[in-house]
Specification:
binds zinc ion; 3 domains; three-stranded mixed sheet; four-stranded mixed sheet; protease; metalloprotease; metallopeptidase activity; alpha/beta; cell membrane; globular; 12 helices; hydrolase; CBS-domain; 15% strand
């Protein structure tokens, strides 16, 4: 992960914090000091932010660990100054599972809030937000944390993508409609709400304008993603299969692949070893191999050997998902152990474009 620091792993999920987080900490410290608060008060402010982000991390873990129960892996969790992101490989498709995964995050904040509520009540006082000088005492620290967790739960349950509430709404709708339709209705609802936020923001609080824009863009992105998926699900791998490809030998030098790269349209080549298929190289591997190993190193040394088991009969949406999971844009396709052709993401995009053109006319 670029520009980020690993904090370690929690049940197999690596947690990263983005370097811009330092700016947030510096800003908090600076704003406290500039208000004339002493070092001690300012540090309490910083600690508050750190504890708050621990709550955000727990929220993301809520999503990730619930997803894990349904067999969905989370690659990592990234903490950014604007919040956390659990990088899940996908959302569960069964509506009831998506519902639980989406609800798990806000539920964590609600549980934290309930615990804090009892702790505060035990302590005997529900103090005001801040005391007269804007100082945070130890009890107002917990009270603030209580409020912020309620806020996190409520904010995330706004029924609009990319908020958890958008997924809750989609999951509920998907129990009645198909997923593409449910996504469209949920996205429209979210965008309608977003426009409301912008208007409300213009007459009251400028932050609402930003939230509105954020929600509006998020809703659009989600419905595009789902539209793509639903188009692809109508096709098979064989519909996008390319039968023209170049097979090079694992013993060939890298410069052989460079020649092909420069002389034609192809950017990816299959690599054969002992009459079998070893793997493939794309332009990225060729260029990197050229600079790191030189032009006469064998292609076998740079070939990627991690490709999914794709067959022509497989759904194109499934194939696309498997390729995305491995982070590859190219893959050989096999039929009964024999090479049937190759598939690349460019061809998949062309299928989508052709589909759009046909349905429009
Ligand atoms: Zn969430």
């Amino acid at each position: 992960m670029k520009w980020s620091l690993s904090l370690g792993r929690i049940s197999g999920i690596e947690v990263f914090v983005h370097w811009t987080f330092l700016i947030l900490i510096a800003w908090i410290l600076f704003s406290h000091l500039s208000m004339g608060h002493g070092w001690e008060q300012s540090l309490v402010g910083v600690v508050f932010i750190l504890v708050l982000f621990a709550c955000v991390l727990l929220h993301e873990l809520g999503h990730a660990l619930t997803g894990k129960r349904y067999g969905i892996t989370t690659k990592n969790i990234m903490l950014l100054p604007i919040g956390g992101v659990a990088n899940m490989e996908k959302m569960p498709e069964k509506p009831i599972q998506e519902l639980w995964v989406a609800l798990a995050g806000p539920a964590v904040n609600l549980v934290i809030a309930i615990v804090l509520f009892f702790v505060l009540r035990q302590a005997g006082d529900m103090p005001s937000l801040l005391d007269v000088d804007g100082h945070m005492s130890s009890s107002s620290f917990l009270y603030n944390l209580f409020l912020v967790n309620i806020l996190l739960a409520v904010f995330n349950l706004i029924p609009a993508f990319p908020m958890d509430g958008g997924r809750v709404l989609r999951a509920l709708l998907a129990m009645k409609f198909d997923r593409a339709k449910a996504t469209e209705i949920a996205a429209r609802t979210g965008q309608f709400l977003a426009i409301g936020f912008v208007f409300l923001g213009l007459i009251s609080n400028v932050w609402l304008v930003f939230i509105g824009l954020f929600v509006f863009l998020g809703a659009g992105a989600e419905s595009n993603y789902e539209a793509t998926r639903s188009v692809l699900s109508k096709y098979k791998v064989s519909d996008a299969l390319m039968k023209k490809y170049t097979l090079l030998s694992a013993d060939d030098p890298i410069e052989r692949a460079v020649e092909h790269l420069l002389n034609g349209q192809e950017k990816e080549f299959l690599i054969a070893l002992n009459n079998g298929l070893m793997g493939f190289v794309t332009r990225d591997e060729i260029i990197r191999g050229l600079s790191e190993l030189g032009k006469s190193a064998p292609l076998g040394n740079i070939a990627r050997q991690d490709f999914p088991a794709l067959s022509p009969e497989m759904g194109l949406d499934k194939a696309h998902e498997m390729m995305a999971k491995l982070g590859i844009s190219f893959s050989p396709v096999f039929m009964e152990g024999e090479l049937a052709g190759v598939l690349d993401t460019e061809n998949i995009s062309e299928v989508i474009m052709v589909n759009k053109a046909v349905t429009r006319s």
